[in-house]
Amino acid sequence: MKMNYRRLFIPNSIVFITFVTYERQEILISNIDLLKDSIKQTKQIFKFEIIAICILKNHIHLLIKPEDINTYPLIIKSIKRNFSTKF
């Protein structure tokens, strides 16, 4: 099923994002170091501030403030790709 996402790109805003693991696998807490490293590597590529983060077994809630609002989809893509490739 293809999702048609609608995203707002309001300059200088904070973005709330939730993303879930594939088939809700409970892999995030047990691989927390890998997740932290994925976020650190993404921060080396894109400029953003983490306002808050809540990591649960199978999903993440994240509040970020990207320097360039147009990059927030790329930030999430980078975190997810980095984590899943190394997992």
What do these coordinates show?
The chain has 87 residues and is an alpha+beta fold. It is built from two helices and three strands. The protein has helices at 32-45, 72-86, and strands spanning 15-20, 48-55, 59-66. Strands 1-3-2 form a three-stranded antiparallel β-sheet. A hairpin with a 3-residue loop joins strand 2 and strand 3. The chain is globular.
Rg from Cα: 13 Å
- The largest sheet has its strands arranged as 1-3-2
The counted number of beta strands is 3
Gap from first CA to last CA:
25 Å
The proportion of residues in beta strands is: 25-35%
Shape estimate? globular
> Mean of the pLDDT scores?
93
Structural class: alpha+beta
Sketch the major β-sheet: 3 strands, antiparallel
| Fraction of residues in H or I helices | 25-40%
**Uncertain spans, ≥5 residues at pLDDT below 50?**
none
N-to-C SSE series?
Answer: EHEEH
Query: Count of helices?
Result: 2
